[in-house]
Amino acid sequence: xxxxxxxxxxxxxxxxxxxxxxxxxxxxxxxxxxxxxxxxxxxxxxxxxxxxxxxxxxxxxxxxxxxxxxxxxxxxxxxxxxxxxxxxxxxxxxxxxxxxxxxxxxxxxxxxxxxxxxxxxxxxxxxxxxxxxxxxxxxxxxxxxxxxxxxxxxxxxxxxxxxxxxxxxxxxxxxxxxxxxxxxxxxxxxxxxxxxxxxxxxxxxxxxxxxxxxxxxxxxxxxxxxxxxxxxxxxxxxxxxxxxxxxxxxxxxxxxxxxxxxxxxxxxxxxxxxxxxxxxxxxxxxxxxxxxxxxxx
Length: 297
What we know:
alpha+beta, Dihydrodipicolinate Reductase, domain 2, 2 domains, 8 helices, 21% strand
């Protein structure tokens, strides 16, 4: 956990390194999934050619230390640590890192004042960045995700029952909602995508929890047998839609689906789908008591 005397210089250096890695290197599980998808597409297909270009681009980005995608997205930060004065130190380090990486040109200017329409020029604005703190007695961790505008635009939230989809308040209704979100996204979310899904919760918590699901590794099996089966069903049925990479057709529409459930009000039954593009940029670290990186997660 953080100490009151945490070194601000160490913390700034650690957060900056975390953001650079998230922005320029695909997680190994995502890269592996893309490689498997490439191998599974027909040799002379547009889908295989598209995935090949994605893999080549990702390799060049990692080698040159350049963004995986020109839309470097909006940062979402999750911090788990003991409570105390250094929570403000973490927020300060995140903001300073964003400004520095924007000034050096690694991050695109992606924060616009919603009233004036003017770009803030430093990726800092009202309620931006979003930093979420959770108390823990375990080792302190910080995770960051950069989520682009295209994938955010095709994310969706449903309220069950949904007569339009003939979806009832049950897991089959949930399945119909998730597949509808995938179908509506087509290639606009830069498929193949990864889904983070929250069943239940409220309007606000649903999206936050769904985005947290995007931090789960693609090779991590769901602890719930019921939800694990639902994830398998979603993957099978979504990849049979023929949408394919970038919506150009093919076998690979999704790389993964990560589903969880939250408590809900008896009168409410929400299904929230956070869609991430193939360029799922996430990274997380453990920090020691001095703010140094103790390990990558």
